[in-house]
Amino acid sequence: GLELSKLAQLISVAKGELPADLILANASVLNVFTGEIEPGNVAICGDRIAGVGDYHQAKQILDLRGKYLAPGLINGHTHLESSMLDIGQYARAVVPRGTLAVVTDLHEIANVCGLEGMRYVLRSARRLPLELFLMAPSCVPATHLETSGASLEPQALRQILRWRGCIGLGEVMNFPGVLSANESILNKISLARGKVVDGHAPGVTGKNLSAYIAAGIYSDHESVSLDEARDKLRQGMYVMIREGSSEKNLDALLPLVTDKTYKRCLLVVDDRSCVDLLRDGDIDAVVRKAIRSGLDPVRAIQMATINAAEYFRLARLGAIAPGYTANLIV
């Protein structure tokens, strides 16, 4: 939270008693809560939004001349390592395109060099204009048939889950282990109690899906058919609609998104190569493709901002509103 003095200043700016540090004037503000686009001035104090509306006093005023102002995009499921880029170059590729936050479990670098590799990425990310939220990798190695450079047992996971910026448990790929109530995998899930637990359940439906969800796993990005995604949605999962370099499920799953269901749907990339990041972009490319395929533009942005923020419990991200972080794209 903010220090009391900074919070008091934010309140005064919001009330119009003190000038803002920055006003983004004459913006067409995308309101992710109501789905509306509103004209207004956005007052910013420090790194927080003080208010949206009739603000005119500021140390600096930037006239947007009616341009759209949206929250920074949140990529709710991605493996940075698939880009084959170091974290600094990855940020250089995605931040200018509007991806200002990513959720990742770093399981690929953990497979190679364990905690040391994960710490390197997290340390490097702190110096970048990119919010990185870590999900503790639940399956390192991915299978017992694999010879990996590291293995993360429950004791290591307990440590990672206490790290600053770790918000939950990464995709539980060992769905056979969950269904057979394997003690090791259930122990890992129990360590994350109270945090978000991501799923990975390709082709799992019906009662097996019920059993998988009952273990405390409430999202999935592996659906390739509409029926599979609908079953997961009906049974209480958040459905991550994936459009990456190899797996492209957007066209098949977009009919799932309606006025009644869209709050439980997220746009993600899972894996994107550096070639695709350069040529098409990151989550911004998925938003654009969804719009081209007929999805309402505001809804597409909601599915890449506030929906991810609410599922992952990312306080003060994903919206343009008082008290939210001024992570914005024009």
Automatic annotation (TrEMBL):
Molecular-function GO terms, alphabetical: adenine deaminase activity
Signal peptide limits: none
Keywords annotated in UniProt: Hydrolase
SUPFAM superfamilies: Composite domain of metallo-dependent hydrolases, Metallo-dependent hydrolases
One Pfam family it belongs to: Amidohydro_1
Stretches assigned to the Amidohydrolase-related domain: 68-330
Keyword Hydrolase found: yes
Keyword Protein biosynthesis applies: no
Matching InterPro entries: Amidohydro-rel (IPR006680), Metal-dep_hydrolase_composite (IPR011059), Metal_Hydrolase (IPR032466)
Official protein name in the record: Amidohydrolase-related domain-containing protein
Organism: marine sediment metagenome
